[in-house]
Amino acid sequence: MSWTCTKGETFEPLNRGIYADIHSVEIDAEDPNRVYATTGRGFYYSESAGESWRHVNGFSRSYTVPLLVQPGAIYTAAAAGPPPTWSMGSVGADALMFRSHDRGRSFEPLTLTEGGASPMRAMVMRCGLIRPAATETSSRCSLTVRSFE
């Protein structure tokens, strides 16, 4: 991963201290020095525009892919291992969705059913917001998670 301030004439590396298998990168809209990344070894964040990175511990799964950064919350999904393991055994990807309310410093599994977080056989590869048509009674948006097996 690299960036340029010279319209592509030169590039500076931004991958010091982060696992090389980078899947998604997002810049915090409220603080452009704060950058988030999902990798094959978990979630990372930078408070220095990518010059240095911090690995976030505490995930029960390590292979993170999607990334959705919203004011007040960050969402990602993590599988127990990389894609070649997803078709093995009865648990498949053994994936969970996670949410952070502290700008990526810690995450908690999303509870999708009553009784706690339930691992999914399929892995979530993308997540996003669905914005309903604005009406007099509805102008909210919601997070929708879709799983395909």
Structural descriptors:
149 residues, 12 strands, 4-stranded antiparallel beta sheet, mainly beta, disordered C terminus
Description:
The strands form 4 sheets. Strands 3-4-5-6 form a 4-stranded antiparallel sheet, with no helix packed on it. The chain has a 4-stranded antiparallel sheet with strand order 7-8-9-10, with no helix packed on it. Strands 1-2 form a two-stranded antiparallel sheet. With 149 residues, the chain is mostly beta strands. It has one domain (2-144). A hairpin with a 7-residue loop joins strand 5 and strand 6 (54-55). It is 0% helix and 37% strand. The chain starts with a strand and ends in a 5-residue tail after the last strand.
- Mean pLDDT, nearest integer? 80
Strand line-up across the major sheet = 3-4-5-6
Beta fraction of the residues? 35-45%
Let me know the largest β-sheet.
4 strands, antiparallel
Level of helix content?
under 10%
Overall 3D geometry? Answer: globular
- Estimate nothing, just give the exact number of structural domains: 1
